Amino acid sequence: MLRSLEGSMVQAPRREILLKLVFFFPLSFLTVAVAIGGDTPGVNIKVDQVGYPRSGQKIALVSAPGQTFEVKRSSDNATIFRGKLRAAAPDANSGDTLQAADFSSLQLPGKYYLEVPGVGRSWPFSVEEEVFSRTFYLAMRAFYGQRCGTAVDLGPEFPGYTHAACHLRGSFHASSGKEGPRENVGGWHDAGDYGRYMVNSGITTGTLLWAWELFGPKLGRIKLNIPETGNGNPDLLNEVRWNLEWMLKMQDDDGGVWHKQTSEHFPGFVMPEDDPLPGLVIGTGSAPYKSTCATADLAAVAAIAARVYEPYDQNFAAKNLRAAREAWTWTERYPNVTFRNPPGISTGEYGDTDCGDERLWAAAELWRTTGEPVYHRYFLDNYAQYLPNLHAPQAESWREVAPMGLWSYALATRQGADAHARAAIRQGALTAAREIVDRTRRNPYRVSLVATDYAWGSNGLAANYGVQLLFTNVLSPDPAFVETALDNLHYLLGRNTFSLSWVTQVGANPYRHPHHRPSGADKNPEPWPGLLSGGPNAARQDAVLQALPPHLPPAKIYSDNQDSYASNEVCINWQAMLVFLLAGVLP
Ligand SMILES: [Zn+2]
Hints:
The protein is α+β, with helices and mostly antiparallel strands. The chain has 16 helices and 17 strands. It has helices spanning 14-22, 133-145, 198-219, 235-249, 292-308, 314-333, 356-370, 373-382, 402-411, 419-442, 458-475, 479-492, 517-521, 543-546, 565-568, 572-585; strands spanning 7-9, 45-46, 51-52, 59-62, 68-73, 79-84, 89-90, 97-102, 110-116, 120-121, 125-127, 152-153, 162-163, 170-172, 196-197, 260-262, 279-282. Helix 4 runs antiparallel to helix 5, helix 7 (356-370) runs antiparallel to helix 8 (373-382) and helix 10 (419-442) crosses helix 12 (479-492). It is globular, with a radius of gyration of 24 Å. It starts with 6 loop residues before the first strand and ends with a helix. The model is unreliable at 1-6 and 11-38 (pLDDT under 50). Zinc ion binds at residues 148-149, 166-167, 189, 194, 272.
């Protein structure tokens, strides 16, 4: 029997082991547990409501005073593990005082809950080798739900989650330098709104393609039950292609790429097919009309796609490479044309005053794909100024993609790489990852977020720290990197101050009111599944957050309210970080 310093396994009689086999349900049948004995779960015991991999660290957090804890089996309330809570630690970011319950030595697969005498019980969770498979499926399939320009139906698994073909009309806005119709049907709805934005598509699509490049052998067998399933290609690549095809349509004949395609203003909370506003191709308002950030993002993403799709569809791969080259050439001519919303347009701006990092990423990916000196020279002439970005609190974001370029260069196996550059990037990445591990271990919630990280999209940032750690683990494997990435995932799935799973329809106590038009407009009682919430945001840019009590600590400034777009919106780039994080921790 396994033992830990603070906890002990309780000997399970043979009958219970048999019961375990009988009551062992796959995660797809995970349902809300019925409280046995009249005890309902409360927010004071925080667990990852999906669960914990069998062999890894298993820690719950308790925010009310207690001494001991028990892990009980959901099927028969048998105590499987007993332990002592660790010493209390105050957490400044939430105002909570936390005691850790460590039951890492429990490796018996099953469904459990925690009980703390005098405090109560937790929501249920599983211990299982492939514990996050179902969450990965839902998170990746959520992109299918965001498809624009086609009818969507989540099928018998989620009856009623459908929308008709949407946004089939489109035209050039005066700011694009052209006029007349331009449908550009396709792509993913960006977030809670129905816009499509090149810059946010760039990091999203790049991150998903990277997940495939780094973890493809684990992901190839996962079917997403989308229209293309069974066509012989991996489903992740099938889904990503839906957005890539739209990105390619946003490229003008001269190689430049328009910044976005949205309506003039946000529509009301209607289903996408009921949005009457045409999708306008929007440009910078004066020559050359396209923006450098959007164009360089396409160059980077299409260069990755040229590598990734080559084994499956050579014509599509070649089309991407052509697009990437033409986009790069355009950015040589126009190295920093930035974008601001033209008069009359009030949708998301995704403004960025410096497109140098986008160009660095594009150069790295183009060199990695082609080996050609023009891209290599640009990268080597420019990378050094971006090395400090590897240590920035927020390593990469839609606005700051230099780390993507640096990491890609460090990963390339191509001959002729500059040894000095590779060593410098590797050293920077490792130092940053070790700092994140150290501060996460010291953080009472075991999350990598620092006080200033509780801004718009803080949950995406928590996932992003996981991406950074898992990437570094590919570069230089260290179990602490994976463990800390998992800590951030546990935070998102319920081990947080609200005891809330921030992925819709995942876990027994998920958030339920995302700022997401289909979820708000349809007749289904629950929101569309698999969507990550933006999370706590101390900047309070909406009226819901402004109405919360003053002086709340930053991690508490959140509301599960559809109107709180600043803390409860969904967004494809956070979603991509979540998918990458889940892909990286799948066995
Ligand atoms: Zn649409």
